[in-house]
Amino acid sequence: MGALRLGILGSGKGSNCRAILERIHDGAVAAEPRIIVSDMAGAGILAIADEFGVGSVYLPPGNFRTRLSPEAEMELVRMLRDAHVELVVLAGFMRVLKAPMLEAFPHRIINLHPSRLPKFPGLEAWKQALAAGEQVTGCTVHYVDAGVDSGEIIAQREVPVLPNDTPETLHARIQEQERQLYPEVIRRFAAERSAK
Ligand code: GAR
């Protein structure tokens, strides 16, 4: 049946994408990265794609700030379908997906979020946790639905908030856990698929 075919979407530096590609490269995750797409020209995640020899595309997002234009989203669907992607992996993709993607890949889009959902959905969740005086926060992998960070939870990890934490130190501690959790979830998806 072959490896689980992934499409990875990101807007930023791509450290989680790198962690996933490393685990695939070392044989721990039975997946095949088919295409990496970014809505940000020059994003770090596109350089990581090149480094690992994965095809990548910059997708101009259109004129909206928090989502893709309908045309761009249709183009994204087409690219992912052409690449025969089975699972869409959002790795720091900062736009909300709408009907074209949700209908093309039902229950087949997953996202990584830097809090223990349902607490602190939305932007800069580590800052929200700090401002709320939480002693524990974390990270979550969940299915993407029509809401913002509201889909069914797949896996979570806890991360302590320490007394002297700044947004930067807390975010870095969360990201350490993210870089373990996300490849592990994808490893499980791939293992379950090949067992079917
Ligand atoms: C990660 O911390 C991820 O949790 C967050 O963006 C970062 C991407 O880092 N995602 C969100 O906030 C999604 N709402 P990366 O580009 O180094 O992987």
Question: How would you characterize the overall build of this protein?
Answer:
By secondary structure, the chain is an alpha/beta fold. It has a single domain, classed as 3-Layer(aba) Sandwich (Rossmann fold). Helices cover 38% and strands 22% of the residues. It is built from 6 helices and 7 strands. The protein has helices spanning 15-25, 44-51, 70-82, 99-104, 125-131, 167-195, and strands at residues 4-10, 31-38, 56-58, 87-90, 109-113, 136-143, 153-160. It has a 7-stranded mixed sheet with strand order 3-2-1-4-5-6-7, sandwiched between helices. Strand 2, helix 2 (44-51) and strand 3 (56-58) form a beta-alpha-beta unit. The protein is globular, with a radius of gyration of 16 Å. The model has no long low-confidence stretch (mean pLDDT 97). The structure holds glycinamide ribonucleotide. Glycinamide ribonucleotide binds at residues 10, 12-17, 91-92, 112-114, 175, 178. The site of glycinamide ribonucleotide (GAR) has 14 residues, from helix 1, strand 5 and helix 6.
In short:
The chain is of the alpha/beta class and 196 residues long.
Strand percent estimate:
15-25%
**Total count of strands:** 7
Question: Any idea what the CATH architecture is?
Answer: 3-Layer(aba) Sandwich
Q: Enumerate the strands of the largest sheet in spatial order, edge to edge or round the barrel.
A: 3-2-1-4-5-6-7
Largest sheet: 7 strands, mixed
N- to C-terminal distance: 10 Å
Number of domains: 1
Task: Let me know the average pLDDT.
Answer: 97
What shape does the CA trace take?
A: globular
